[in-house]
Write a sequence for this structure.
């Protein structure tokens, strides 16, 4: 049986989902990163530019004083403006060619030289990360290096804003992709589900090929193989049925001849001892005929041999009438009162097999009843479900044997006569073939045996037999 | 009575011919539909016993052809198949009765007698049933030469039973045979008439009730 884990492991929908979702997530993540960087770079550029502007302004205000030493002539107000920032601390440092401090924050680190001027760098100052730009220039005050730096609070804030909004958009997109892939996978797999439902709705004995025109390309091969398999099974079932039919026919004719000839010879024979021997042979021929018939019926009642049977509307009253009329002579011989109770009932099935089953039940009932006992074959419909029932007031079947007597070649310990032990096995096979249940219990007043076959209920509770057949076939027509 | 057995199996054909001969028929046996046709061309038969599974033209086709040519001779079909549908088909095609192999000889003979009796009732109003004689035209019956005093309804029931001898006749069918003049008769009336008939018939014939199904008339074999 399939375990739920197995089902998960083999679900194409899940695989499709996983295979589409993982790359989608990666692509989305890459997109987010590129968005982030393309947004962050111009912002850093802009902030850097304001530091460069500061550095240029500072450079323009370095003069030589009276003693030919370079000094920063920026008024304190201007320095305050330079340093003014709501969120970040701004630092500057001016040094000469020898690195001697001219003005500003003495220990501010310089951005190392690079192929651009001003050069830029990230550094740490006073325990805080800073961005520093260093401008190296040659003025009338000589070589100067002007560094301007600021802490990175502003930049970090902007970066965080950009990142969080990018992530928010990203997650929304992810949700959308998730939903779209889900819908897509469902839609893409719907033809698969249709095929599965089509197969699931078929009856087990339906071996007609599945139509290929609406089957998706990807599983056309599988369905084609299935159709070939259906075909093989149906052909072998047909072959088996033909073989059994032919075997039944081929065996029955010579057995009939032997039996009839022996009957005539035994009746004509004047010599008592020869007549006795003929009667023995006749009995053996009858048993042989009976067992042959039972074996062939058993084989032909098996599900496998019946895949191709056309199930037809069968009138149970007709079967009961035929069986009772047919077994009347045997019942008379056994001194048994054979009767019927007939109410309308119709089933879909194989008529001759149902006949064999009811015949076997009647044979058993007659064989196991004492003289003067009653055997009744009943049919009818109970709460929409057709049934056939055979009751006798004979020796009965012990409760502990009731399940076993339906096995092949098993005879109850009370069994009388020369039965083959196949009769009830046939009843069981025929019942299974028709989806009927078998109940076996004691007869009406605790004596004898009652065997009941209950067939599946037909949709509409039938009134007269013909109406039930009409309504059943109408239901069929609607279904197909 | 002339009977023709059409059966390709020599063992069965011979047995049926012998059984018929032993009960007083002049019986012939042929093995094919073709041979049967030439036999029918040459002579008249009162009864045909035809196997369904004949070689070349099968029994069903043969009987259909026979009826198409307007032959009314009673036909009993034999078959080794057990499909109920076959029986229906055979009867539809014009066979009068149907017997499945293997059959017992007494059953075969009883069916033959019933067929001949029914066939004769059409052409000949005088028919015999065991020790009973019937004049269907005068609606009279007699047992061992003694005329039976039957009412109209008793006669109708007896006639219906005798013409369907060998088969169980339902109460409904018997009821409809006596209720033809918009009479309001209860089904129980049938029981009353059958009971009176039994008394009047005495030991000439046995009307047995088959519980839940109806009545059947049996010949009482002379002891």
């Amino acid at each position: 049986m399939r375990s739920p884990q197995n089902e998960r492991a083999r679900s194409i929908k899940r695989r499709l989902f996983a295979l589409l979702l993982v790359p989608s997530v990666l692509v989305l993540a890459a997109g987010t990163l590129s968005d982030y960087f393309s947004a962050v770079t111009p912002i850093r550029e802009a902030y850097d530019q304001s530091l460069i502007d500061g550095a240029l302004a500072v450079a323009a205000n370095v003069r030589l004083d009276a003693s030919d030493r370079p000094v920063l002539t920026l008024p304190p107000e201007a320095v305050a403006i330079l340093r003014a920032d709501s969120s970040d601390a701004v630092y500057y440092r001016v040094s000469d060619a020898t690195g001697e401090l001219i003005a500003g924050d003495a220990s501010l680190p310089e951005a190392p030289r690079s192929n651009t001027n001003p050069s830029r760098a990230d550094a740490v100052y006073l325990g805080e990360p800073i961005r520093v730009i260093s401008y190296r220039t040659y003025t009338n005050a000589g070589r100067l290096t002007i560094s301007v730096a600021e802490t990175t609070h502003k930049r970090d804030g902007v970066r965080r804003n950009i990142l969080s909004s990018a992530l928010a958009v990203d997650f929304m997109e992810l949700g959308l992709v998730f939903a779209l892939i889900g819908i897509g996978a469902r839609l893409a797999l719907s033809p698969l589900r249709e095929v599965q439902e089509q197969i699931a709705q078929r009856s087990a004995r339906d071996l007609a090929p599945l139509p290929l025109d609406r089957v998706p390309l990807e599983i056309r091969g599988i369905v084609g193989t299935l159709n070939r398999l259906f075909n093989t099974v149906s052909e072998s079932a047909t072959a088996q049925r033909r073989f059994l039919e032919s075997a039944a026919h081929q065996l029955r004719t010579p057995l009939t001849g032997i039996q009839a000839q022996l009957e005539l010879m035994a009746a004509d024979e004047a010599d008592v001892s020869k007549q006795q021997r003929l009667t023995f042979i006749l009995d053996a021929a009858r048993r042989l005929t009976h067992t042959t018939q039972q074996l062939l019926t058993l084989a032909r009642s098996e599900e496998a041999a019946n895949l191709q049977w056309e199930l037809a509307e069968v009138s149970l009253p007709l079967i009961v009438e035929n069986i009772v009329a047919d077994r009347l002579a045997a019942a008379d011989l056994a001194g048994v009162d054979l009767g019927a109770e007939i109410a309308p009932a119709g089933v879909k099935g194989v008529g001759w097999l149902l006949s064999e089953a009811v015949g076997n039940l009647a044979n058993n009932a007659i064989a196991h009843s004492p003289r003067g006992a009653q055997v009744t074959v009943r049919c009818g419909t109970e709460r929409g479900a057709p049934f056939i029932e055979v009751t006798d007031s004979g020796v009965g079947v012990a409760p502990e044997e009731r399940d076993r007597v339906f096995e092949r070649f098993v005879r109850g310990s009370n069994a009388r006569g020369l039965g083959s032990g196949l009769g009830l096995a046939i009843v069981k096979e025929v019942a299974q073939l028709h989806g009927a249940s078998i109940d076996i219990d004691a007869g009406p007043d605790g004596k004898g045996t009652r065997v009941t076959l209950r067939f599946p209920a037909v949709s509409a509770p039938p009134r007269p037999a013909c109406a039930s057949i009409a309504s059943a076939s109408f239901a069929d027509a609607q279904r197909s | 009575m002339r009977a023709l057995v059409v059966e390709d199996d020599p063992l069965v054909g011979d047995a049926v011919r012998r059984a018929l001969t032993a009960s007083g028929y002049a019986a012939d046996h042929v093995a094919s539909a073709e041979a049967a046709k030439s036999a029918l061309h040459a002579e008249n038969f009162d009864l045909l016993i035809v196997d369904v599974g004949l070689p070349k033209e099968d029994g069903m086709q043969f009987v259909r052809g026979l009826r198409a040519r307007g032959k009314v001779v009673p036909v009993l079909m034999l078959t080794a198949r057990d499909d109920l549908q076959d029986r229906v088909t055979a009867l539809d095609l014009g066979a009068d009765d149907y017997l499945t192999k293997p059959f017992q000889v007494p059953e075969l003979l009883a069916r033959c007698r019933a067929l001949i009796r029914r066939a004769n009732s059409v052409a000949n109003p005088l028919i015999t049933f065991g020790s009973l004689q019937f004049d269907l035209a005068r609606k009279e019956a007699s047992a061992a030469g003694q005329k039976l005093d039957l009412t109209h309804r008793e006669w109708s029931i007896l006639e219906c039973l005798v013409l369907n001898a060998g088969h169980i006749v339902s109460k409904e069918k018997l009821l409809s045979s006596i209720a033809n003049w918009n009479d309001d008769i209860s089904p129980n009336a049938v029981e009353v008439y059958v009971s009176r008939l039994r008394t009047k018939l005495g030991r000439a014939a046995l009307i047995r009730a088959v519980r839940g199904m109806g009545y059947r008339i049996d010949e009482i074999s002379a002891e």
